[in-house]
Write a sequence for this structure.
């Protein structure tokens, strides 16, 4: 009993020091709870890479929100944060079908004449949707997916920061993803 009370008091002290911008306290808390957070994420995802990403994000958010956090039990806070991050990731993955995968699936189905005609209709709709993107998003999207350049290469060519390129690319993909799925459903399931 005394040991758990001692840990709670130590954690509260570390959290207070973190609120006061003490990196050493943050590093101490990180070292103390890293395996717990990683294992909790891994148990839910069964993917070490994704678990590491989520664990890193949980600790990053802890540091970024340090001034506003009111935490009485750090292990409960971390458990809740990892659970919520895991649910968010899983929800995104269920909604997400990469555009490249969708186009590859279409190419695989092109064997019949009907499939070729449907593919052609889909590609016309796809090109129209890409052309309807705002100019910067359209340019970046085409450079990434048609010319197969990396975000860093695009940033260099357009004299933008890589983060700006990734933001424009993310917006373009979000816009296209919803539109392409609806088009795919309409074209292929109406046929």
């Amino acid at each position: 009993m005394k040991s758990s009370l001692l840990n709670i008091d130590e954690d509260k002290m570390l959290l207070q020091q973190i609120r006061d911008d003490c990196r050493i306290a943050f590093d101490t808390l990180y070292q103390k709870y890293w395996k717990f957070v990683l294992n909790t994420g891994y148990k839910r995802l069964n993917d070490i890479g994704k678990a590491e990403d989520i664990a890193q994000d949980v600790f990053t958010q802890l540091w970024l929100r340090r001034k506003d956090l009111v935490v009485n039990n750090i292990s409960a806070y971390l458990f809740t944060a990892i659970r919520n991050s895991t649910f968010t990731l899983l929800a995104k993955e269920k909604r997400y079908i990469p555009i490249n995968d969708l186009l590859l699936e279409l190419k695989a189905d092109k064997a019949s004449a009907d499939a070729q005609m449907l593919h052609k209709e889909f590609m016309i709709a796809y090109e129209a949707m890409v052309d309807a993107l705002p100019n910067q998003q359209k340019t970046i999207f085409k450079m990434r997916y048609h010319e197969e350049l990396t975000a860093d290469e695009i940033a260099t060519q357009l004299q933008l920061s890589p983060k700006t390129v990734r933001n424009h690319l993310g917006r373009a993909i979000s816009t296209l993803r919803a539109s392409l799925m609806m088009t795919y459903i309409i074209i292929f399931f109406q046929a």
The chain has a mean pLDDT of 78. The domain at 99-190 is CATH 1.10.10.10 (Arc Repressor Mutant, subunit A).
